[in-house]
Write a structure and sequence with these properties.
By secondary structure, the chain is an all-beta fold. The chain has strands at 3-7, 10-12, 18-25, 34-41, 48-53, 60-62, 70-75, 80-85, 94-102, 105-108, 112-116. It is globular and about 40 Å long. The relative contact order is 0.32.
Length: 118
């Protein structure tokens, strides 16, 4: 049974940093087979892509609103994907979700709250 567990969220001041982690178990976690992504959903808004790493060639894609501030990475030895978030803004406040895509099937974590406020 697939299980994705996010951690690392919290309250941070504008301009601060956080590193989110997503530990994956129960499915193959391979750079060649498993695409990983981070999404977020703010209150009253639709869930949106933040960043993802495609399977196979490892192509990385970022939403325009986080380019240069956020970095997605993965550690296959630890079955974990990370999202390093720097220069955080109040508009980055949202629940952040991790998603794994394997052989066309999607698996989601439960989300972790990130609040950027002074």
């Amino acid at each position: 049974q697939a299980l994705l567990v996010e951690s690392g969220g919290g309250l941070v001041q504008p301009g601060g940093s956080l590193r989110l982690s997503c530990a994956v178990s129960g499915i193959i976690f391979s750079s060649t087979a498993t695409a990983m992504g981070w999404y977020r959903q703010a209150p009253g808004k639709q869930r949106e892509l933040v960043a993802d790493m495609r399977s196979g060639g490892g192509i990385v894609n970022y939403a325009a609103f986080v380019k240069g501030r956020f970095t997605i990475s993965r550690d296959n030895a630890k079955n974990t994907v990370y999202l390093q978030m720097n220069s955080l803004k109040p508009e980055d406040t949202a629940v952040y979700y991790c998603k794994a895509t394997l052989f066309g099937r999607e698996y989601w974590g439960q989300g972790t709250q990130v609040t950027v406020s002074s």
